[in-house]
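Input (structure):
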């Protein structure tokens, strides 16, 4: 999954953080997302993949 030559992944927020736990809201903020429809381009690392997995019901991977 992780690539040393600068692989990136784009993530779009599709769900609202309203009525979600604080750790899920903090994970969205860590991914650079805070509004519906916002897209963030991140380095493709195992830690970022783990964050995406934690909030997979509120985000989608954009190609």
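Output (sequence):
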């Amino acid at each position: 999954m992780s690539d040393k030559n600068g692989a990136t992944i784009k993530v779009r927020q599709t769900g609202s953080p309203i009525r979600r736990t604080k750790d899920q809201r903090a994970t969205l903020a860590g991914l650079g997302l805070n509004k519906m429809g916002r897209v963030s381009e991140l380095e493709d690392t195992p830690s970022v993949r783990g964050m995406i997995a934690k909030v997979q019901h509120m985000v989608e991977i954009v190609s």
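Notes: The beta strands are 8-13, 39-43, 59-62. The chain has a mean pLDDT of 93.
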